[in-house]
Design a protein that fits this description.
It is a single chain. This protein is an alpha+beta fold. The protein folds into three domains: about 130 residues, no CATH class; about 180 residues, C8orf32 fold (Roll); about 60 residues, Translation Initiation Factor IF3 (2-Layer Sandwich), CATH 3.30.110. The protein is built from twelve helices and 17 strands. The strands form four sheets. The chain has a six-stranded mixed sheet, covered by helices on one side. The chain has a five-stranded antiparallel sheet with strand order 12-11-10-9-13. A four-stranded mixed sheet has the order 14-15-17-16. Helix 2 packs across helix 3, helix 2 packs parallel to helix 7 and helix 4 runs antiparallel to helix 7. The longest helix has 17 residues.
Length: about 375
């Protein structure tokens, strides 16, 4: 029996510029489509493939488009597709307003998202979203699901590097904090900061966990690597977008012993551009501390952070919050014969504290760094 083929004329309604949702750069590629296309309702066009990109309405069977009645319905479909690591989403609706703008997808921390909307002659709207995942996301998904079938060659290499690190450097006897510090230090030892790529391939490498193989990363590379390794190690870790020092920036939130805090491995590794020196001034801090230097973007699901219990220098016992802390952590050890010590002072005015050391009548060499309105103090007693 012959099917009666009804032809529908398709016109492009709008094309939205693609933005990089990690907030560190803008992608200006736009998916173009002819202004007039013929697409039979019952066609022999190939079915929509959610694991492919570059598909356009004129070469798809439009019956494959998922109908979404409103934005809530769209997000439900998006999250189901995200859970399966689909690279493309094909939807239809009675209104283009049911297709969210790209900036509303920030909370998913996609590396990039591309949206094209079409209007058919019968009044139906269609949209194709293409999703670009960070390599760390893809490798983590493969690791947790024991399924490497969706990984490309570069991701397979990264998977091997990451799994070797997890198997050889970490074990189940370690505390969450100890695992985190090994991951933090490994990333700082492995990576060198590179703000911009030299070409397209280099830019692709430094903006994700591929950086663990190349050795160079911008903030996206640090953040993606820490996210990937932490979650592979069984820790709860998320990515956060915002600004720092007036430019777009990314960092992480981490859950240690059921408490959430923020960590910026990029800043810890690059403070003062001292090669080989790793700081911990941005390691497990509450939002109030980080807001001194960081701006949090909206449209993100952020954890509640309270206190400094997991702050690196608190864990190590050398964080100074008041005069009594300074006495116990700095003054008394020197008076009892300590020849070297380090303290992180979370006070804006430290000179009155330093003046108390004059009572000890000892020759000292002091080195200090001002970090985020705090002072990292190192003292050598001579």
């Amino acid at each position: 029996m012959k099917l009666n083929k009804r032809k529908i004329s398709i016109i492009v309604l709008l094309l939205v510029l693609t933005i990089n949702l990690s907030s560190c750069s803008i992608i200006t590629q736009v998916n173009n489509s002819p202004s007039e296309n013929i697409n039979p309702l019952f066609s022999m066009n190939p079915p929509f493939d959610p694991y492919s990109v570059g598909q356009t309405l004129d070469n798809l069977n439009i019956e494959d488009a998922k109908f979404v009645s409103d934005a809530v319905d769209f997000y439900s479909h998006l999250e189901a597709s995200y859970g399966k690591r689909h690279k493309s989403i094909f939807v239809r609706s009675s209104s283009h307003e049911n297709f969210p703008d790209l900036n509303n997808l920030d909370k998913y921390n996609f590396k990039g998202c591309y949206k094209t909307v079409y209007l058919s002659s019968n009044g139906t709207y269609y949209a194709i979203y293409e999703i670009e995942y960070y390599p760390g996301d893809s490798v983590l998904y493969a690791y947790l699901n024991n399924d490497k079938s969706l990984l490309n060659k570069n991701e397979l290499d990264l998977y091997q590097t990451a799994s070797d690190f997890i198997n050889n450097r970490l074990n189940n006897e370690m505390s969450d904090f100890d695992k985190e510090m090994i991951i933090h230090d490994f990333i700082c030892e492995t990576l060198n900061y590179q703000k911009e790529g030299k070409d397209e391939a280099d830019t692709h490498n430094i903006t994700g966990a591929y950086s663990l193989i190349t050795g160079f990363a911008n903030c996206q590379g640090y953040t993606d690597a820490f996210y990937m390794l932490s979650n592979m190690a069984g820790l709860k870790c998320q990515k956060v977008s915002g600004e720092a020092q007036g430019v777009a920036h990314t960092w992480n939130s981490i859950c240690i012993d059921e408490r959430w805090s923020y960590i910026d491995v990029t800043f810890d590794d690059t403070a003062f551009d001292n090669d080989g020196i790793v700081f911990y001034a941005y390691c497990n801090v509450p939002q109030e501390y980080l807001e001194r230097s960081h701006l949090f973007y909206e449209n993100q699901i952020l954890p509640v952070t309270e206190g400094y219990e997991d702050f690196y220098y608190v864990r190590k016992g050398n964080a100074v919050f008041n005069e009594e802390d300074f006495k116990q952590i700095v003054y008394m050890p020197i008076s009892n014969g300590a020849v070297w010590l380090e303290a992180f002072i979370l006070l804006s005015e430290i000179q009155p504290l330093l003046d108390t050391l004059k009572d000890l009548n000892k020759s000292m060499q002091m080195n200090y760094f001002i970090i985020n309105e705090c002072t990292l103090l190192a003292i050598n007693v001579q």
